[in-house]
Structure formats: structure tokens, C-alpha cells
Amino acid sequence: MAVGSKELNIEALDGFDNARLTEELQKAKAELFNLRFQAATGQIENTGRIKVVKRDIARIYTILRERELGIRENVDVPADDVKESKKKTKKSKKKAEEEDK
């Protein structure tokens, strides 16, 4: 079983562009700072969350590095726009088929 946030799994992160990945990285680092601060002051409720956030940070760094090395494809369009563009291409294919008939 993989440890990490459900919303920041590999499939979701792979669909993000580099700008969105760096944004998620900043959020995760800020959360880790806050969790460490809570742990130091004895106010932390869920100590396991620290491990989860560390794994998320490592996962984001890995994807960024793989893209830098050319192992993983770069994404130019944010993940939300990809779904919309796929819908548009399906519609345009159907229109082209209808025009050919």
C-alpha cells in the first residue's frame, strides 16, 4: 500500500504541468513546516501526516526530475483542460465523419 495523499497520486501529478507541480510543492512544504511546528510544541494530532506529506514532496520532486531528464513527458496543458480537450477532439472527429458521409 502506497503512503501519500489520495489527491496527489502519481496519475494525478502526471497530469499537472510544471507550474502546477511547483505550486503543489510549495503547498506541501508549507504544510510540512506547520506540522513540524505543531510537533515541536506538542499540538499535533496526527503524527502520521508528517510521513504522508514528506512522501508527497518526494513524489513531486521525482516527477519534476524525470521530466527534466526526459524520462517522463512534459505536460503543456493543466490536467483540467486535458479532459475538456479530449471531449472536443471526440466531437470534432464525429463532425468530420458526418461531413464525409
From TrEMBL:
Residues 85-94 have a biased composition (Basic residues). Residues 75-101 are annotated as: Disordered. GO terms for molecular function: structural constituent of ribosome. Residues 75-84 have a biased composition (Basic and acidic residues). GO terms for biological process: translation. CDD domains: Ribosomal_L29_HIP. The keyword Ribonucleoprotein applies. Keywords: Ribonucleoprotein, Ribosomal protein. One of its GO terms (cellular component) is cytosolic large ribosomal subunit. Belongs to the universal ribosomal protein uL29 family. This is Large ribosomal subunit protein uL29. It comes from Auritidibacter ignavus. The gene is rpmC.
